[in-house]
Design goal:
hydrolase; 10% strand; Plant_ABCG; Rossmann fold; 6-stranded mixed β-sheet; ABC2_TM; ATP binding; 3-stranded antiparallel β-sheet; alpha/beta
C-alpha cells in the first residue's frame, strides 16, 4: 500500500485548491442524557483549523463519539455554540463530511462503483475529471487493486472488513469536504493499514487544507506521531487539548513521564482511565506522581488515594479526572496553549452555501437519476433480495396454476374460485415482507449519505419508487401470465389487463406498507413481526374468511374500509365473475341446488347463479371499480407520504 499511496501524493497536491482557511470552534458544549447523573460532555470549548489533523482520544465511554456528533450538529441533546470562521451561520452539510463507525455500503456494487456514485452524488455527474478523481481517491486509500471487486453480500464474499472501512472513508473523501470528521477510521485495520490511512488523512489535511478530526483507539507510536493535535477526553472533560509535540512534556509535568519504549498515547490513556479505578486504587494506592508545580489545588492523580472509604464509588474517579482537567488548564495557560477562536474578518467568510443553491433544482434531478441508476444496478444484481423474491412470486403462481388447474365455472366451485382472488391479494401481499432486508440495507446507506447532505429523503424515495415500480410490475405480470389461463380466469383481454392492474395495485400497497413499517422500526425482526401482523389484520377483515356483511360492526366500519386488501379483493372478484354464469347442481329429486341465492332461477328458471349474484352475495355489486382503484391509489400515495415523513423524521 505504501507505494500506491506515495505515487498519488502528486495527484493529491494537484487536487488541492486555494481555499479559504476554516476554523471550527466549539464553545461550552454540554451534552446530557436522560437518567444520567452527569453530562456526557461537560462544557467543552476549543477549536481546530483547516490544514490540521486532530486526534480525539480517551478511554472507552469518555464521550469521543458524542463529541463528534456534537460538533457535527448530529445530536439534539447538545447545547453550546459552534462557529465556523466566527459565524454560526454556516451549513455543516455544505462543509463537512462524517465517516461513521459502521460501514453502510451496498454489497452488490463494486468498490469503484460505490465511490463513483458517492462522487456523482456529492459533486454532480458532470464534475470535471470525475473519473480521474475517483481513481485518485481509490489509489490514495490503497483500494486500486480491489476497485472492481464487489463489496460483498451474504451470498457472495467480497472485500475484507478493513477494505470496507477504507471504502467508507473514500466515499466521504471523494466529496472534497472542507472538514472531514471520522469516528474510528482505523478500527478493523491492521497496524500497517491503520498507519497508512492516518498518513493519507494527514496529507489530505496538509496538502488540501482540509480540517480532519478523528477519534482513534490505541494508535501505534508512528501513527500517533502523524497527528498535529490531540484532544483527550475522560468522563466528558478535557484532559489535554494541544499539539501532540507537547504531550511528552506535559506528562513529565504531571509526574507521569512516559517510560522508555512506551507510547505516550498509551501513557496518557493509562493516566486518565478510570474504568477499573476502584480496583486500581485498592490494589496500588492509586496512580502516583506529583502535581505540576504551581498547578491548581484540585486533586491530582494520587491525591485521593487515601480515605477512599469515605467516598462513593464514583467520587474517586471524578476527583481524579477533575484534578487532571485542572492540571491541564493550568499547564495550557502557563505554556500559552489556550487557543481562542479568531474573530471573523473580511475575506474569510464561510463559502459554499450560496453557490450550491444555484442550480439546485437541476442538481436535484441529476441526483435522483444517479440514485435511480444505483438502485437499478442493485436490483439487477441482488439475487438474494430481488431474484429470490421474483422466484417466490413465480413459485406461488406455479402452485396456484397447478393446484387450481382447470377449475372451471361451476357453482360448486364458487369458494374455490373466490380463493384465487383471496390468495392472489393476501399471499402476494404477505410476501412483500421479503423486501424489508434489502430496504434496511439501502436505508443504512441513505442515513449516512443524507446526514452528509448528499441528497434529500424526497429524492431518495422518488428514486427508490421509480426502480421498484417496474420490478413489482414484472413480478405481477409473471404471476398473472402463469395463472390466468391455467385456472382459467375470466377470459378476454379487458379482464386480463384489469386483473393485472388490480393485483399490481395490491402488491404496490403491500410493498409500501412493509417499507413504511421498516422505516418506522428499522429493526429487521421487529419490522417483520409488525408487517406480518398488519397483513394478518387485513386478511381477517377483508371480507373473505368472514363475509363483510357478517363482520362485527367495529371491524366492518374501521379496518374493513381502510384495508387495501378489501378493495383489491373486491375488484378481482368483480372482474372474475363479470358476465359469468355458473351452473348449479341438482339433487336426486331434481331440485336445483345453488350455494347462494340465484336470480336466474327466480327470473328465467335457469338452475345457475350469475356473476351478479356472487357480487350481490358479497355485498359488492353496487361498488364502482373506478372509485375502488382511486382508493387504492390514495392508500398507496398516503403510505408513501407517511414513509417520506418517517425518513425525514428518523435521522438514525
Ligand atoms: N443517548 C444516550 N443516552 C444515555 N447515555 C449515552 C447516550 N449516548 C451516549 N451515552 C453514554 O455516554 C458515554 C459516552 O459515550 P460515547 O459513545 O461518546 O463514548 P466513546 O468515548 O465514543 O466510547 P467508545 O470509545 O467506547 O466508543 C457512554 O457512557 C455512553 O453510554
Amino acid at each position: 500500500m505504501t507505494t500506491t499511496l506515495d505515487s498519488h501524493d502528486c495527484e493529491l497536491a494537484a487536487l488541492a485548491v486555494d481555499r479559504v482557511p476554516l476554523e471550527l470552534a466549539w464553545s461550552s458544549v454540554i451534552v446530557t442524557a436522560p437518567k444520567r447523573p452527569r453530562p456526557i460532555l461537560s462544557s467543552i470549548s476549543g477549536c481546530a483549523r483547516s490544514g490540521e489533523l486532530l486526534a480525539v482520544m480517551g478511554p472507552s465511554g469518555a464521550g469521543k463519539s458524542t463529541f463528534l456528533d456534537a460538533i457535527c450538529q448530529r445530536t439534539p441533546r447538545a447545547s453550546g455554540e459552534l462557529t465556523v470562521n466566527g459565524t454560526t451561520a454556516y451549513s455543516s452539510k455544505d462543509l463537512l463530511s462524517f465517516v461513521e463507525q459502521d460501514d453502510a455500503l451496498l454489497g452488490t456494487l463494486t468498490v469503484r462503483e460505490t465511490v463513483d456514485f458517492a462522487a456523482q452524488l456529492a459533486l454532480g455527474p458532470t464534475y470535471p475529471n470525475l473519473s480521474q478523481h475517483v481513481d485518485a481517491t481509490l489509489a490514495s486509500l490503497g483500494l486500486s487493486s480491489v476497485a472492481h471487486q464487489r463489496i460483498g453480500t451474504a451470498l457472495q464474499r467480497g472485500i475484507s472488513g478493513g477494505q470496507k472501512r477504507r471504502v467508507t472513508i473514500a466515499c466521504s473523501v471523494v466529496a472534497k469536504p472542507r472538514i472531514l470528521v471520522l469516528d474510528e477510521p482505523t478500527s478493523g485495520l491492521d497496524a500497517k493499514s491503520g498507519k497508512e490511512v492516518v498518513a493519507f488523512l494527514q496529507r489530505l489535511a496538509h496538502e488540501q487544507n482540509v480540517l480532519v478530526i478523528c477519534t482513534i483507539h490505541q494508535p501505534a507510536y508512528e501513527t500517533f506521531a502523524l497527528f498535529d493535535r490531540l484532544l483527550l477526553l475522560a468522563r466528558g472533560k478535557v484532559m489535554f487539548d494541544g499539539p501532540t509535540s507537547h504531550l511528552d512534556h506535559y506528562l513529565v509535568a504531571v509526574g507521569s513521564p512516559t517510560p522508555e519504549h512506551v507510547n505516550p498515547a498509551d501513557q496518557i490513556i493509562d493516566l486518565v482511565s478510570t474504568d477499573f479505578f476502584k480496583a486500581h486504587v485498592g490494589s496500588t494506592g492509586g496512580s502516583s506522581g506529583p502535581r505540576e508545580k504551581g498547578s491548581s489545588p484540585a486533586q491530582t492523580p494520587g491525591a485521593h488515594a487515601h480515605g477512599t472509604h469515605e467516598m462513593s464509588d464514583i467520587a474517586p474517579a471524578d476527583q481524579h479526572v477533575d484534578g487532571l482537567a485542572s492540571s491541564w488548564a493550568d499547564y495550557a495557560a502557563r505554556h500559552d496553549l489556550v487557543r481562542s477562536p479568531e474573530p471573523p474578518t473580511a475575506g474569510n467568510e464561510v463559502p459554499y452555501a450560496k453557490q450550491r443553491k444555484r442550480g439546485a433544482a437541476l442538481m436535484g434531478v441529476r441526483k435522483t437519476l444517479t440514485l435511480s441508476h444505483r438502485n437499478a444496478l442493485n436490483y439487477s444484481r441482488n439475487l438474494l433480495a430481488y431474484g429470490i423474491r421474483l422466484g417466490m412470486y413465480i413459485g406461488m403462481a406455479v402452485l396456484l396454476a397447478t393446484i387450481w388447474v382447470h377449475l372451471g365455472w361451476h357453482a360448486s366451485k364458487l369458494n374455490d374460485r373466490l380463493s384465487v382472488s383471496f390468495f392472489s391479494v393476501a399471499f402476494l401481499g404477505f410476501m412483500s415482507v421479503a423486501g424489508i432486508p434489502a430496504f434496511l440495507e439501502e436505508r443504512a446507506v441513505f442515513i449516512r449519505e443524507r446526514a452528509n447532505g448528499l441528497y434529500t429523503p424526497g429524492q431518495y424515495l422518488v428514486a427508490a419508487t421509480a426502480v421498484s415500480l417496474p420490478f413489482l410490475f414484472a413480478c405481477t405480470a409473471f404471476y398473472t401470465l402463469i395463472i390466468y389461463w391455467a385456472i382459467p380466469m375470466n377470459p378476454g383481454a379487458t379482464h386480463f389487463f384489469r386483473f393485472l392492474l388490480y393485483l399490481y395495485l395490491a402488491i404496490l400497497a403491500a410493498e409500501t406498507q412493509s417499507l413504511l413499517i421498516a422505516a418506522f422500526v428499522p429493526i429487521f425482526v421487529a419490522a417483520l413481526a409488525m408487517a406480518s401482523f398488519a397483513n394478518g389484520l387485513w386478511m381477517t377483515t377483508m371480507g373473505y374468511f368472514i363475509r363483510s356483511t357478517s363482520l362485527p360492526r367495529f371491524w366492518y366500519y374501521t379496518f374493513h374500509f381502510i384495508n387495501y386488501q378489501t378493495f383489491s379483493f373486491d375488484l378481482l372478484v368483480r372482474n372474475d365473475f363479470a358476465g359469468q354464469v355458473l351452473p348449479c347442481g341438482v339433487d336426486a329429486a331434481g331440485s336445483c341446488l345453488c350455494p347462494i341465492e340465484s336470480s336466474l332461477l327466480a327470473t328465467t328458471g335457469e338452475c345457475a347463479i350469475s356473476g351478479q349474484d356472487v357480487t350481490q352475495d358479497l355485498d359488492i355489486a353496487g361498488v364502482s371499480d373506478g372509485l375502488y382503484v382511486g382508493i387504492l391509489v390514495i392508500i398507496i400515495v398516503v403510505m408513501r407520504l407517511l414513509m417520506w415523513g418517517m425518513l425525514v423524521w428518523k435521522k438514525r
